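Let's practice the habit of predicting before peeking. Look at the sequence and jot down your guess about where helices and strands might fall. Then scroll down.
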Amino acid sequence: MIILSKEQVLKLHASLIKATGGSDGIRDEGMLDLALNNPFQSFGGKELYPSIQAKAARLIRPSSSQF
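Done guessing? Here is the structure:
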């Protein structure tokens, strides 16, 4: 599995903004950190999202704390 670093995600974001328009930058760096690490959580030595599909779903589904 390829795991993108925060730096890679920020470069990808900047590239997309440059190509499609909009304002660059992020509003909350802490939330970005949480979002990128969320799919890789574990408890008691077991992954909470063990499959790549579960990890992908966790990446695109915002947590209730983001509202």
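How did you do? The beta strands are 42-43, 46-47.
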